[in-house]
Amino acid sequence: MLDVRGLKKVYEGSGRRVEAVRDLTFTVDAGELVCLVGPSGCGKTTLLKCMGGLLSPTSGEVLLEGRKVSGPPPGMAFVFQEYGRSLFPWMRVGENVELPLKQKDLGKSRRRELVRDALESVGLEDAVGAYPWQLSGGMQQRVAIARALAYEPHVLLMDEPFAAVDAQTRADLEDLVRGLWRERGITILFVTHDIDEAVYLGERVVVLSASPTVVREQLKVDLPAERDQLHTRVDPRFAELRTHVYEQIQAAKRGDGPQDAVTKSDTPPPR
Ligand code: ADP
Ligand code: MG
Question: What is the whole-number distance in angstroms between the Cα of residue 84 and the centre of ligand 1?
């Protein structure tokens, strides 16, 4: 579904040169929920912008369903970290969700139906006529998720979407994402710096090194598909996996171990 090959991004300008992403290669299969985890500043947003066609890579390429991404692809939707800046304050919730649909060749009644259905999926059917600033942060982020869902994307890219909400809301939103993934069968690439979140949500975790970024490890999360905040987080296997990822990230920060090489083990740490 998604194929990132030898992606490199160097920011250049005003005499400065920042190599944000050195060499990233990984794939995401159709219908998979993959979490990408790496330390702050390691180039996660840069990578997602390249994947979404918002930024052109210095070298390498991104393929979506076999086609090279060179601008925002029609089958892809984004949920950004800053929900406060991603919704239009002068538009009601329903209008915000409907806006991207206007690029599609759909009749008004079909658009309305998609908006209603998406808001229902995130539990906000009653907020259709409210303005974003009348809602809490968590609700605003739900609106942003509904907007992405209404667009009926094949692939959903999420960039630290819950980093700015409180812990309780965050837990609810994590469960919402897993629920939507299981119901709708969308392919999701979820980026976070939070190790517990990556292990809780993902079917697979891709661990990134510090900048200039390479893939440090890929780990299959062999927890049951049915997860919940109460039981999953106290499962000994959850603790083993999170500890393993934590050690990888610490080593990545220190710069030990595989430097330029890509370690690719799909085998989780032994039980
Ligand atoms: P993350 O999302 O993992 O925190 P970013 O992709 O935002 O990381 O940034 C990775 C690196 O690239 C950082 O060192 C950051 O300062 C640098 N960077 C990001 N955007 C730009 C830009 N537009 N110009 C120059 N450097 C940038
Ligand atoms: Mg970022």
Answer: 20
Tell me the CA–centroid distance for residue 131 and ligand 2, in Å.
27
Find, among 124, 187, 190, 126, the residue nearest to 152 by Cα: 187
Domain that holds residue 186: 2-75+154-254
The residue whose C-alpha atom lies closest to atom 5 belonging to ligand 1 is 43
Tokens of 39: 């330390």
Residues 129 and 234 occupy one common structural domain: no
Where residue 176 sits, what CATH number does that domain have? 3.40.50.300
Q: How far apart are CA 23 and CA 264, in angstroms?
A: 14
- CA-based R_g, the chain, Å: 19
Separation of CA 10 and ligand 1 centre (Å): 10
Looking at the structure, tell me whether residues 166 and 124 fall in a common domain: no
Per residue of the chain (271 residues), give pLDDT as tens.
999 999 999 998 888 888 889 899 999 999 999 999 988 888 899 999 999 999 999 999 999 999 999 988 888 999 988 877 889 999 999 999 999 999 888 999 999 999 999 999 999 999 999 999 999 989 999 999 999 999 999 999 999 999 888 899 999 999 999 999 999 889 999 999 999 999 999 999 999 987 778 898 999 999 999 999 999 999 999 999 999 999 988 887 777 765 444 445 566 777 6
Judged by DSSP in three states, 129 sits in: coil
Region for residue 185 given its phi and psi (left: phi exceeds 0; alpha: psi -120 to 50; beta: otherwise): left
CB within 6 Å of ligand 1 — which residues? 11, 18, 20, 40-46, 211
115 residue type, one letter: V
Which ligand has the minimum distance to the alpha carbon of residue 211?
1
Would you say residue 260 lies in a domain?
A: no
What is the whole-number distance in angstroms between the Cα of residue 41 and the centre of ligand 1? 6
